[in-house]
Specification:
It is a multi-pass membrane protein. The protein is of the alpha/beta class. The chain contains 9 helices and 8 strands. It folds into 3 domains: 6-92, Periplasmic binding protein-like II (D-Maltodextrin-Binding Protein, domain 2, 3-Layer(aba) Sandwich); 118-201; 215-256, no CATH class.
């Protein structure tokens, strides 16, 4: 099959396809135009650019396609090199090529408010670490001492545990007790050193709340009424997040502007 000598190219104005008025007269520019020129040179064809309105394409109320997908479905455009997000429903009228570039998405929120200064004392460790540390400090030494170095009934064991009775002198002189005590002092030193090192780094910056880090956090913030998700009307981002089957990438509320 011979490649056509002329093609109608459907395009949409975007940050990859735009008018460049800095040259003599306005001309089309952008990465989409560069790709189109490269294809025309390699495949030896001429082209006419057809500017399409109504976005990338969606189904309107009467069931027909509008936008770029509609233009290509009706034969008003043969190809398009413009960035057109791949959606399953658009594959009914558009035959996509292999992707030649990808776009990473992010979202912007207000800077989280500063935390109270005393939070710096708690930030070096996570909650689970603090709980384990407090349990080990308050409970483990007495439990091990009473369980290992005393021969006693369970009643005496709990009484000594609660009252934190000291070890008899004969027990303190034993090698096993010294090893136990030394290991405890070593772990205590490591914990102190780790905490001191980490807290110094936190003192150099203003502590702030965690804020919104991903779509799941954003969905929770929107559900609680703390945030609003604002998107341009017809944005593929909103379509993807609303229709997503993954619970980590789904939003229930979008405000269009």
């Amino acid at each position: 099959m011979q490649f056509p000598s002329h093609l109608t190219v459907g395009m949409i104005f975007s940050n990859t396809f735009y008018y460049d008025s800095r040259r003599n007269g306005s001309v089309y520019a952008g990465i989409d135009v560069q790709l189109l020129k490269l294809l025309s040179e390699k495949l030896n064809f001429q082209y006419t650019i057809n500017i399409v309105k109504d976005g990338y394409g969606k189904v309107n109320e009467n069931g027909s396609w509008i936008g770029l997908a509609g233009a290509m479905g009706r034969g008003e455009a043969d190809i398009s090199t413009v960035y057109c997000p791949l959606l399953e429903e658009r594959t009914q009228v558009i035959d996509y090529s292999m992707p030649y570039y990808t776009v990473e998405r992010t979202f912007a929120t207000a800077i989280p408010k500063p935390l109270p200064r005393y939070y710096v004392l708690l930030l070096p460790f996570q909650v689970q670490v603090w709980i384990a540390f407090l349990v080990s400090v308050l409970l483990v030494p007495n439990v091990l001492q009473q369980a290992i170095f005393r021969k006693q009934s369970w009643t005496d064991y709990f009484i000594n545990l609660i009252s934190c009775n000291d070890m008899p002198r004969r027990v303190e002189n034993k090698l096993s007790f010294r090893v136990f005590n030394g290991s405890w002092l070593l772990s205590d030193t490591i914990m102190r050193f780790t905490y001191t090192t980490v807290i110094l780094s936190f003192l150099t910056v203003t502590p702030r709340s965690r804020g919104v880090r991903n779509v799941h956090d954003l969905a929770n913030a929107i559900e609680k009424g703390n945030f609003r998700y604002i998107e341009l009307k017809g944005s593929v981002n909103a379509e993807f997040l609303i229709q997503s089957d993954s619970p980590d990438y789904v939003l229930r509320s979008v405000t269009y502007c």
